User: Which sequence fits this backbone?
């Protein structure tokens, strides 16, 4: 698995606090049993009117096509646990999200896809938004090791990301299954020590 | 840092090891699986040739996409049929206990875990669903997870997790008559904010929580995620043990006594320390209604809607007003509704239905209102029917349905149309949540929904006290 230490590119801005995962991917698309087509759906109901005609939305704008960095405000990805939301953004082309804060399940799922969610102050997010909207060709680079966003003018912005998420990304262990599977002996020991696995004599229906 | 709380004790006893990333590998005592968030996870296991590590700790049901009127297979909705069939194949292939539509144990995943005695204090629990925190009512650390994490739990029965801080929320005093658990949690979210719980587990306590029955505690814990907290719980006590006793998967006989001793030991110590403590006056809580597009945008039923210029962040309500179409400063009381929905993992248990039926009994749903009661599980439905609640509702003009998630997220045929306004006992008023991109949702307690259904508009349920 790749190590993800620096990630970036052109950016797109989606403004607004508390943008929930129902808005990122409406529930009707959760009926698909694979993630394959999720890249068609990010913000679907905000990008289309009731008749399916496209309406104004950053994800529809020509100048933001090909963006790999998404800049958002507070509590982005709150609500439903649906991994369809980070999957949709990732498959659309996003590789890193910079925001004031994130819903906890959304942030956890994003890391497992190798898509960091990093936090910046609301002033800095405001600055980034203005920069990107004014100059959509600007390239931003998120440097996870230095905990900085590097700007085209040589300046930078401080970012925050939990140590666990950062280390998983920078050491290429963000797809956690392999890491967890390494310790199955220890897992069994922990399970055996828990009184409910034996002493309560259940649950063991099978 | 918190110390000697239930969170700390359960975390420490379930910690397998520290991963090279610095995260904790945490053992998961119970894994609940439903049809929507898991097909991709099973496919990932197949791709990697992995078995399920602890199939006996994994239970599944079908709830989100099932129709609640005609449950004849194949479903008319081909995608819902394919999704249900995929789960049936996955549980067969991987050897998992499954409660399908023909089982009397079927129901919303967060209703059946407790009802079957699977959810127990002092345990960790995970489910690919954000309202997994419901199980916290038992003193369980219950995590809502994404699909890749479902894969991890299936493959290893563990998760890679960061430790949370613990915030104690005391609700003291006496709730006024007509004020319910739903009003308590809506008030907490309103006060602390929809992102206020970021990085925290919420421990709910105080005499209001102490007096609540398990259904009520589940309602409170259910909506923790709407306050931004991944985990919410109540310490176990006699009310908890009495609820678990005698359920199908509860420990039996002497084993039950041993279990209670363990469960008691896992509760937060009296001198536990917390990262934060918040006190809320329960006697000041009113029947509460959301007016906007997130569960924190709520007012007491007698209050007026906020005026943007009086808020610290006027822009935060711009989108809400644009979507809902209300006048700032208008009263919420009297807002006309088109649909009334009583159901969801927040409020579809027997005591919720009893509270709604008390209001509905002997009265009639207003003309033009479509009113729906959807029990949380086949078992709740059976018990409600034994108590005659189905007749109370149908005689009042409510539709009485089969168990499922229904109009909570409208992945089945129960949906809002156009700009309809729905008085709903569910947990999310997000744009589009109830199936129409223009639809509008007002969250409130089941008793308040029943009262709104009878009047065709938002009323104060206390008029029926
Ligand atoms: S009732 Fe609603 S919130 Fe609860 S599990 Fe079903 S869809 Fe999710």
Assistant:
């Amino acid at each position: 698995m790749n190590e993800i230490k620096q990630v970036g590119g052109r950016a797109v801005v989606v403004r607004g606090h508390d943008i929930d995962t129902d808005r990122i991917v409406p529930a009707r698309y959760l009926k698909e049993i694979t993630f394959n087509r999720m890249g068609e759906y990010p913000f679907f109901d905000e990008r289309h009117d009731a008749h399916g005609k496209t309406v104004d939305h950053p994800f529809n704008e020509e100048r933001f096509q090909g963006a790999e960095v998404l800049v958002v405000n507070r509590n982005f990805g709150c609500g439903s646990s649906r991994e369809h939301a980070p999957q949709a953004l990732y498959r659309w082309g996003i590789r890193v999200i910079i925001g004031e804060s994130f819903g906890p399940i959304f942030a956890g799922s994003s890391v497992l896809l190798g898509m960091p969610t990093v936090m910046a102050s609301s002033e800095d997010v405001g600055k980034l938004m203005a920069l990107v909207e004014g100059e959509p060709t600007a390239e931003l680079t998120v440097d996870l090791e230095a905990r900085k966003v590097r700007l085209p003018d040589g300046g930078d912005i401080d970012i925050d990301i939990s140590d666990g998420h950062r280390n998983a990304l920078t050491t290429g262990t963000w797809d956690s299954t392999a890491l967890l599977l390494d310790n199955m002996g220890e897992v069994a020991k922990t399970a055996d020590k828990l009184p409910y696995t034996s002493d309560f004599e259940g649950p063991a229906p099978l | 840092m918190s110390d000697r709380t239930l969170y700390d004790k359960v975390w420490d006893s379930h910690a397998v090891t520290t991963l090279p990333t610095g995260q904790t590998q945490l053992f998961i005592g119970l894994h609940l699986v439903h049809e929507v968030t898991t097909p991709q996870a099973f496919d990932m296991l197949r791709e990697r040739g992995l078995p399920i590590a602890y199939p006996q700790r994994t239970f599944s049901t079908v709830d989100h996409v099932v129709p609640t009127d005609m449950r004849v297979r194949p479903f008319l909705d081909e995608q819902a049929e394919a999704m249900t069939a995929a789960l049936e194949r996955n549980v067969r292939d991987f050897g998992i206990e499954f409660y399908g539509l023909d089982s009397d144990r079927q129901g919303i995943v967060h209703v059946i875990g407790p009802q079957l005695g699977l959810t127990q204090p002092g345990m960790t629990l995970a489910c690919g669903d954000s309202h997994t925190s419901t199980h916290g009512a038992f003193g369980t650390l219950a995590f809502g997870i994404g699909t890749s994490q479902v894969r991890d739990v299936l493959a290893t029965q563990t998760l890679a997790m960061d430790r949370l801080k613990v915030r104690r929320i005391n609700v003291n005093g006496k709730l006024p008559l007509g004020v319910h658990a739903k009003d308590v949690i809506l008030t907490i979210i309103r006060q602390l904010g929809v992102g206020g719980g970021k990085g925290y587990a919420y421990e709910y306590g105080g005499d209001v929580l102490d007096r609540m029955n398990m259904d009520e505690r589940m309602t409170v814990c259910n909506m923790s995620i709407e306050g931004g907290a991944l985990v919410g719980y109540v310490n176990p006590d006699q009310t908890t043990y009495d609820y678990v006793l005698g359920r199908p998967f509860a420990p039996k006989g002497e084993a039950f006594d041993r279990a209670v001793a363990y469960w008691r030991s896992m509760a937060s110590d009296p001198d536990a320390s917390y990262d934060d403590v918040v006190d809320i006056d329960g006697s000041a809580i009113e029947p509460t209604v959301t007016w906007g597009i997130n569960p924190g945008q709520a007012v007491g039923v007698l209050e007026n809607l906020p005026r943007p210029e009086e808020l610290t962040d006027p822009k935060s309500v711009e989108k809400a007003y644009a979507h809902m179409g209300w006048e700032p400063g208008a009263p919420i009381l009297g807002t006309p509704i088109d649909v009334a929905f009583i159901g969801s993992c927040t409020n579809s248990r027997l005591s919720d239905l009893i509270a709604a039926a008390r209001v509905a009994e002997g009265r009639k749903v207003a003309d033009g209102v479509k009113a729906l009661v959807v029990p949380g599980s086949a078992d709740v439905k059976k018990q409600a029917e034994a108590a005659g609640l189905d007749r109370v509702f149908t005689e009042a003009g409510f539709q009485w349905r089969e168990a499922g998630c229904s109009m909570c997220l409208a992945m089945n045929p129960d949906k809002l149309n156009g700009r309809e306004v729905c008085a709903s006992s569910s947990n999310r008023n997000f744009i589009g949540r109830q199936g129409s991109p223009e639809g509008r949702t007002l969250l409130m307690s089941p008793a308040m929904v029943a009262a709104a259904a009878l009047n065709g508009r938002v009323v104060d349920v206390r008029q029926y006290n």
